[in-house]
TrEMBL record:
It comes from the Bacteria. It comes from Mesorhizobium retamae. Pfam families: Response_reg, Trans_reg_C. This is Response regulator transcription factor. Keywords: DNA-binding, Phosphoprotein, Transcription, Transcription regulation.
Amino acid sequence: MIVIVDERELVTEGYNSLFDREGVASAGFAPRDFDAWVSSAAEDDLKSVRAFLIGDCREGAVSPRQIRDRTGAPVIALSEQNSLENTLRLFEAGVDDVVRKPVHIREILARISAIRRRANEDASFTEIGKMRIFMDGRDPEIDGEPMPLPRRERRILEYLASNRGRRVTKTQVFNAIYGIFDEEVEENVVESHISKLRKKLRERLGQDPIDSKRFLGYRLVA
């Protein structure tokens, strides 16, 4: 999930729509609401956040260092001012990158992946058995051949791969794929997506690579 913080609701809604087209969950906050949320959010909720985008906010209203105290997710400033002084001020405040607007959503996603790779949180891909699972939106490969997947199923596979060796709950998968504030979608939709994904993987691999245990969650195995 991507979190966008901006004084203007029109801006946060616009980014939410653009990320949704890319199959990426997002949530928008006004600065005053974000401050209260980030200081009190549950650890599992923060783990579902892939990055924070900070837009037009009153100076000092959002503290990148406060975010860093709670999570290691990248913090990217979206700047409308093309000046060296403003860029340096944002870096001094603790952001990981400064992006000049307008910017394409795919460039933002690429920058997020690059920052996380440098932090050794993400590799460009993960290999598990015969599967090569990319973290940049490309379809996975099995035995070197692409395996086209719908966006949600691909994102679930990426999330399971990024948590290789750990079991994740249905709630964690839902939060990562749909966002923690999506009240229009039932959490049980995760079971439907995973059922379809397992069937496709089983057909290509000859085995089921998703280990599931009731109440404990899911884990990707070789």
